[in-house]
Amino acid sequence: MEEANSDLITVILAAGKGTRMHSDLAKVLHRLNGRPMIHYVLDTARALRSRRIIVIVGHQADEVRRELAGMSVEFAVQEEQLGTGHAVRQAAPLLADEKGVILVLAGDTPLIRPATLASLMRAHRREGAVASVLTAHFDDPTGLGRILRDEAGRIDRIVEEKDATAEQRALREINTSTYCFEPTRLLQALDRLTPENRQGEFYLTDTIEILRRQGHRVADAPAGTPEETIGINTPEHLSAAESWLLEHNRDRASDQAKNS
After folding, report:
1. Domains and CATH numbers, the chain
2. Is the distance from CB of 114 to CB of 231 less than 8 angstroms?
């Protein structure tokens, strides 16, 4: 067995209900080419040789736990669906004494390749960042958070579409909901989140602005292809993801070998 990546802890957000899937099934349990999509995300975390994998569950938590029974994962529970920042905060007791890099992945984004995440982590380490964001460009970014940059071209903050101005919604660079964080700074930023937005939620994206305002370095890296960052929110998204997987015939073992 390969040695674990000693400084990498992966946190997977898997608490959502997925209302737009028109099913009461937990979103991450919907099947993608015959497998619950959470398994693709776990495959990626394992390909990166994560030392720990923490899955944050909520809606149908017992069913998700049952699906992952026997796997080397830990669980945190988000009892109320109060946003992504609130979700990660539920894992705080498990992260309190950690060092190294926390990689946050969305459980409904199953197409991201290990090579893409390895590139993000290299940028994070190379720049000595406390947070790093995987970005992508879409011709039609409807529904996605936009990346706002300062005069020097550095990420300044992320604005969710519901909170964006018309000018901000015209931007095409989006947040993929994939991040690296330094553990201590992440936990401190989570404690400063407020639900002052149109959805009344605690956004994980707001930690980027908090850390920037504190003078910390935030890095970024582009996704290899925009399609691999697509989140599965509807049956149509699921069908498109299945087609993408079949067309590209991704070899995760090859990705793992490249990043070993």
Report:
1. 5-246 (3.90.550.10)
2. no
